[in-house]
Amino acid sequence: MKTVIFYYTGTGNSLWSARLLAEKLDGGKLLPMKGADPFLAGDAEAVGFVFPVHMWGIPGPVLRFLEKLTLKPGIYYFALAVNAGQVSRTLIQLSRLLARRGAKLAAGFGIVLPSNYIPWGGPGPEERRNELFRQAREKIVEAGGFFTGRRSGLIERGPLWQRIVFSAIYKLSFKQVPKMDKDFWCDDKCNACGICVNVCPAKNIVLASGKPAWQHHCEQCLACIQWCPQVSIQYGKKTPAYERYHHPEVQLKDVIG
To answer: Assuming Cys at both sites, which of 119, 170, 190, 210 could form a disulfide with 232, CB separation 3.0 to 4.6 Å?
Structure first.
């Protein structure tokens, strides 16, 4: 069957997951949501979505992409929600969104990988990261077998308390996300390379007098701070002490491209 996998990524976790999943689906076609034509699914018999969990829900860019995507009854829709350990009700949210438009999410798996949300700390010890990569690889293989068999009915979710508490936080914070870039700043190590400008999926950064300036339509993907080669971009007071992270098997050109 022809399979298309749309992905959204900032620091590579979701791209790595989508690549591995495509391998298990005998070469499903990978397409970035960023800048993709929402009609590119064409005559696909199966369509997948791979994206990170932001604020315990679906990121704004993914929601906007899905709104434009032509959804068809009878297509096998599936998803991977990449998270740092708390998938909450993200996949339920996706299922209901598709259902409102006459489509069905057949299956969805949560994939746990190292956190890129540096305001709350670094990605953790290397040993722990490697273990998460191993576990995620195994689970994506499992998910690939589930999707290949076109099975349905498994939509992973967090415990009830997560779905109540974190969903409330998502609803309260979602409209505030664009202005959350007010806490970004840049230290003297900046060399005006412009990588932050090019890596930002929201086109939220410009160089002003040789320094990045955020334009208040942020998506909180953290690509700018995590890919900065000079480690000069900071967020709040604590990030100078935290290790940067992007998936080790994803390169800068993969995210910019």
So the answer is: 190
Q: Of 149, 171, 193, which residue constitutes the final position of a domain? A: 171
Domain boundary among 142, 171, 200: 171
Note whether 108 and 191 are same-domain residues. no
- The boundaries of the domain holding residue 146 are 3-171
| Greatest Cα-to-Cα distance within the chain, rounded to the nearest angstrom | 55
pLDDT digits (tens, 9 = 90+) for 4-36: 999 999 999 999 999 999 999 977 889 999 877
Q: Which residue in 161, 223, 252 sits closest to 11, CA to CA?
A: 223
Burial class (CB in 10 A: 0-12, 13-18, 19+), 1: exposed
State whether 187 and 167 are in the same domain: no
pTM reported for the whole predicted model:
0.95
Residue with tokens 């297509």: 75
Condensed to tens digits (0 to 9), the pLDDT of residues 164-201 reads 898 898 988 999 999 999 999 999 999 999 999 999 99
Helix, strand, coil tally for the chain in percent (to 5) = 40, 20, 40
Decide: 118 and 226 in contact? Cβ < 8 Å: yes
**How many domains does one find in the chain?**
2
Q: At what angle do helices 13-24 and 126-148 cross, to 10 degrees?
A: 40
